[in-house]
Amino acid sequence: MALVMGVDSSTQSCKVVVVDAETGRVVREGRASHPAGTSVDPEAWWSALQDAIAQAGGLDDVAAVSIAGQQHGMVVLDAEGAVIRDALLWNDTRSAPAARDLIDEVGAAEFAERTGAVPVASFTGTKLRWLRDAEPDNAARVAAVALPHDWLTWRLRGFGPGNAVLEELVTDRSDASGTAYWGADGYDDDLFVRALGHDAVRPRVLAPWESAGTLPGGALVGPGAGDNAGAALGLGAGVGDVVVSLGTSGTVFAVADAPARDTTGTVAGFADATGKFLPLVATLNAARVLDAVAGLLGVTHDELGALALEAEPGADGVVLVPWFEGERTPNLPNATASLTGLTLASTTRPTLARAAIEGMLSGLAVGLEAIQAQGVEVRRVLLIGGAAANDAVARIAAQVFDAEIVVPAAGEYVALGAARQAAGVLAGGPVDWTVSTTRAVDPDHRPIIRSQYDAVAALRATES
Fold first, then answer.
1. Residue by residue, what is the 3-state secondary structure of 60-79?
2. I need a labelling partner for 306 at 20 to 30 A (CA). Which of 62, 70, 194, 323 fits?
3. What pLDDT, in 10s, does the model give residues 318-355?
4. 297-307: per-residue pLDDT in tens?
5. 8: closest CA among 122, 145, 148, 124?
6. CB contact set of 181 (below 8 Å; sequence gap of 6+)
7. In this predicted structure, what is the pLDDT of residue 333?
8. CA separation for the pair 390, 361 (Å, rounded)
9. 200 and 187 in contact (C-beta within 8 Å)?
10. What is the DSSP code (8-state) at residue 402?
């Protein structure tokens, strides 16, 4: 039985799975925490990776390994391969003015055409522009720019200070597509230099299933992937599948044959890990919406779901627009949440519970509509994340999204996607693994949910 290893180096932790390359069955696991914050020393990721690999039984019997990681983070290296400053993560917003500057200089439509995405604070290119303007001495020292998974793959292969072969940095299409300086024709040198101020080494973009090389013990190394592309691969998502992830923040992404070119910037036209594309919309408010309302009502998440199902669709006119921490879709960073439609009759625990779930899902449904507007086919919705385990969330999702809702069994799908990529590198092409599901819910569209939500959200947007 050949074993492969998949890694998910996320914002909060490093997860490692060792699986049977033929079936995808997990045989060993490991985990280590990452430090909090939006600016982190990458050495902390390297230490966590080594700890998690050790917990998972090590690499001695592993035939191939691949690393998926949080997208967009800026890792800048000097000529000796040393990290120049802490990496700015995707959720570091200090580069928001830099994003506006780049759009003003190049144009949103031009960015969308050349890279598939309009710059926002999360993208690597905007962080490089911030570095150029805020820390010019550090910017001048930059000899290479990598993303988190690129840098970890490089370190795992034995490179770094003391063996600084910068040309051995590699990445994949999915992570490169989140930089705002890579497009269908490869790196856009003009956009990169416009961001940093000078040229520098960028990781070589490997093809799907192409090996990055071998470890000293002989294990093949895969190209890796961005976290969302890793999740799509782990889920076995194909064209027509939309993944709705209910984490701290929310994401909606779909596998598509053609790239998205959304000049509004709502849809990021990313690539996936298989040679296709992964248009994506992100929201700032997802599972924590349920945390807030469950805490207010003094109930668990399961109890919140049971309460919600006692109320009718539309929650008797009660609407929660859940912009508790501002919002990215729509782009309203200073917005706040609102609860409207309350009467003496409708102010009940069930209606508040249902309004919370309907509001969270409606915000994500807005993102799905933006993806559909790019010509993306929707066949079914794969609901993942901690909140997806709640039966009420799945049932109400079928009323909001007007599509079949499939809830895969709980799992580390980013790490499993990396493992599946490693198995594909070993096999010389994609491999098929069975993904088990916990439930499927047929479409049960209730237009009143979205009609109420859209009316209130439009009004709130004009006020924010």
1. CCEEEEEEEECCCCEEEECC
2. 323
3. 999 999 988 988 988 889 999 999 999 999 999 999 99
4. 999 999 999 99
5. 148
6. 115, 124, 125, 187, 188, 191, 192, 195
7. 81
8. 13
9. no
10. -
Q: Measure the CA–CA gap between 153 and 161, rounded to whole angstroms.
A: 14
Pairing of strands 204-206, 170-172: parallel
Q: What's this model's pTM, rounded to 2 decimal places?
A: 0.92
Q: Judge whether 397 and 181 are in contact, CB under 8 Å.
A: no
CA angle at 212 for the pair 87 and 181, rounded to the nearest 5°: 45
Taking the C-alpha atoms of residue 460 and residue 457, their distance in angstroms, rounded to an integer, is 5
Residues with Cβ within 8 Å of 345's Cβ and at least 6 positions away in sequence, in order, are 316
Dist CA 421 CA 196 (whole Å): 32
Q: What are the start-end ranges of the E strands in 181-295?
A: 182-183, 186-187, 204-206, 213-214, 220-221, 225-226, 241-246, 250-254, 268-271, 277-283
Q: Which residue has the higher pLDDT, 411 or 169?
A: 169
∠ at Cα 188 (267, 273), nearest 5°? Answer: 55
Q: Are 69 and 152 a contacting pair, CB within 8 Å? A: yes
DSSP-derived secondary structure letter, 267: S
Rounded Cα gap, residues 371 and 418, in angstroms: 25
Cβ atoms of 34 and 40 within 8 Å: the answer is yes
Cis geometry, peptide bond prior to residue 330 (ω within 30 degrees of 0) = yes
Q: Is residue 345 exposed (0-12), middle (13-18) or buried (19+ Cβ within 10 Å)? A: exposed
Name the β-bridge partners of 282: 251
How far apart CA 64 and CA 303 sit, in angstroms, is: 43
State whether residue 26 is helix, strand or coil: strand
One-letter amino acid for residue 30 of the chain: G
Q: How many CA atoms lie within 13 A of 322 on its CB side?
A: 28
Provide the pairing of β-strand 250-254 with 268-271. Answer: unpaired
Return the DSSP state at 362.
Answer: H
> Chain-wide mean pLDDT for the chain?
95
Amino acid 337 reads: A
Of 221, 47, 255, 48, give the one whose Cα is nearest residue 150: 221
CA separation for the pair 34, 167 (Å, rounded): 27
- Active-site amino acid positions: 227
**Predicted pLDDT at 463:** 87
Q: What letter represents residue 43's amino acid?
A: E
The whole-angstrom separation of Cα 277 and Cα 395 is 29
> Tokens 């090389």 correspond to what residue?
213
- pLDDT-derived band at 43, boundaries 50, 70, 90: very high
